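Is this the right way to post structure tokens for a design question? Let me know if I should format differently. Anyway, here goes:
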């Protein structure tokens, strides 16, 4: 079926008159009438009925009108997206979401690279936990989100596309004067007597799993409301914590980090809506991959084979909390 005919039908229903629709579409009234009649023959049912003041859709016509309008709107968005890519134009604001650790450094640096490449773009950055960001992409509030597969894992839904950026090694963050400050990778057993603080279940699960693999335990005696609160408790000597390696370069001056032997890792991904993708989202992914590789190079032994085959730490289909 020709979408031009669909557009004529939707216009007739909106203005309630064949002559008014013809004037708006720059067609003759007879041409519009033939288009509607042809559509009715194809569908095998009357779509409009005449009344004293013009025409209105029949019950079948109203059902078709709603679906046709949605199709026409989606077709218009598709055409705009293709033209934006063709012309290198990103007039549409780019809404970005990221977990707090990635919003602290990697994402702003990637956006700077995007702006150098694509010119002026209106953009916004919303930090949040991965499950929240996933919901924002599905709802259409975010054009792209940078999330992790920390426990309980990534959600798998047909509404979003997921692309792998890399693996991030977790590190321990300590007060600046800690006896282990400045040392090389340490085994988790060396931190068995420490008090740990965590701000979300995803990071806490990684810590517990890492300790259990070594036959040790980690005492998570303190809970912080967010990442800045967790770092404040570390800086003041109340605890140590597990943090993403990508956060190392953005830490406050009164804390330090130490690497862990056989550290826990988390996969970093971008997710984008499968429909109506922002024309700049793919370019931002490329910038994120560049910045991430520069910020936290991953040993080849830890790199999954292929950027889309990394297995989440938790069963697929469960939402992600960090």
């Amino acid at each position: 079926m020709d979408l031009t005919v669909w557009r004529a039908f939707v216009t007739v229903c909106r203005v309630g008159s064949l002559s008014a629709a013809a004037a708006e579409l720059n067609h003759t009234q007879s041409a519009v009438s033939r288009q509607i009649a042809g559509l009715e023959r194809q569908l095998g049912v009357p779509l409009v009925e005449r009344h004293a003041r013009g025409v209105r859709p029949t019950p079948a016509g109203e059902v078709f009108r709603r679906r046709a309008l949605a199709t026409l709107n989606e077709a218009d968005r598709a055409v705009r997206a293709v033209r934006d890519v063709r012309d290198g134009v990103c007039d549409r604001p780019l809404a970005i979401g990221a977990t707090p650790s990635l919003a602290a450094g990697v994402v702003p640096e990637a956006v700077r690279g995007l702006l150098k490449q694509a010119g002026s773009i209106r953009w916004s950055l919303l930090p949040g936990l991965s499950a929240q960001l996933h919901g924002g992409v599905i709802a259409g509030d975010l054009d792209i989100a940078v999330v992790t597969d920390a426990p309980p894992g990534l959600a798998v839904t047909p509404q979003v596309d997921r692309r792998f950026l890399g693996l991030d090694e977790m590190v321990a963050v300590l007060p600046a004067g800690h006896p282990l400050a400045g040392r090389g990778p340490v085994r988790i057993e060396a931190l068995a007597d420490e008090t740990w603080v965590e701000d979300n279940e995803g990071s806490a699960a990684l810590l517990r799993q890492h300790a259990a693999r070594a036959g040790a335990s980690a005492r998570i005696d303190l809970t912080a409301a967010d990442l800045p609160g967790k770092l404040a408790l570390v800086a003041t000597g109340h605890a140590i914590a597990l943090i993403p390696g990508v956060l190392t370069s953005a830490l406050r001056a009164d804390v330090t980090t130490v690497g862990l032997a056989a550290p826990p890792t988390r996969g970093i991904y971008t997710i984008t809506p499968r429909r109506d993708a922002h024309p700049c989202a793919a370019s931002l992914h490329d910038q994120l991959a560049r910045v991430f590789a520069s910020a936290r190079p991953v040993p080849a032994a830890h790199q999954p084979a292929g950027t889309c085959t990394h297995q989440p730490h938790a069963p697929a289909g469960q939402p992600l909390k960090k």
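Format looks fine. Someone answered above. Worth noting: The first strand starts at residue 48 and ends at 51. The CA atoms of residues 211 and 217 lie 5 Å apart.
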